[in-house]
Design goal:
about 80 residues; mainly alpha; rod-shaped
């Protein structure tokens, strides 16, 4: 597999992480809005949406990291594999 240039791999990783985060956050907001009564919406946003937002951000970062490593794998030194 060929290595992508670092700026392009970073851009693709950021796009992948952002799309993943957006989809998960929209799903969480939709689920919260559909199951919460109108007068409880401020409480739901504080109790549910903020922690879910942090979890979604962590998932987005993980996806971005995996995309970057997939597009730009670390170099393997052939001299190290000759000795083993």
């Amino acid at each position: 597999m060929t290595r992508w240039p670092a700026p392009l791999a970073l851009l693709m990783a950021m796009i992948g992480g952002a799309i993943t985060s957006a989809v998960l956050l929209i799903g969480a907001l939709s689920l919260t809005a559909s199951t919460t009564e109108a007068q409880m919406m401020p409480m739901a946003s504080a109790v549910v949406v903020l922690p879910v937002g942090l979890i979604v951000a962590a998932i987005g970062f993980y996806v971005a990291r995996r995309v970057y490593v997939t597009l730009r794998p670390p170099l393997i030194d052939p001299a190290q594999h000759e000795n083993s």
